[in-house]
Amino acid sequence: PLSRYPPLINDISFWLPSEAYSKNDFYELARTIGGDLIEKVVLLDEFTHPKTKKVSHCYRIVYRHPERTLTQNEVHRIHQAIEESAVRELGVEGRF
């Protein structure tokens, strides 16, 4: 069942590495860090730079606690940990 408490929505975008990248790896990384506080992770946009041919992904992460309202400050810490881990573990270049 979905929580009756309001969601907090944060987007994250980054340039993909030149080597193999799987969006499932990002989904798994986000859920590992955010746990039950992440209700949904969706690929919102994919952009290819016309000159450099670099590809960028933008994901929307919906945070929601099942038993209380989350604060933006709480979510910001989790979101920042996801950003840092994506750079470190997936080799992406952050656009945040």
From TrEMBL:
It is found in: Mitochondrion matrix. Residues 3-95 form the FDX-ACB domain. The keyword Transmembrane helix does not apply. One of its GO terms (biological process) is translation. GO terms for cellular component: mitochondrial matrix. One of its GO terms (molecular function) is phenylalanine-tRNA ligase activity. It catalyses: tRNA(Phe) + L-phenylalanine + ATP = L-phenylalanyl-tRNA(Phe) + AMP + diphosphate + H(+). Its EC number is 6.1.1.20. Transmembrane segments: none annotated. Keywords: Aminoacyl-tRNA synthetase, ATP-binding, Ligase, Mitochondrion, Nucleotide-binding, Protein biosynthesis, Transit peptide. Belongs to the class-II aminoacyl-tRNA synthetase family. This is phenylalanine--tRNA ligase. The gene is Fars2_1.
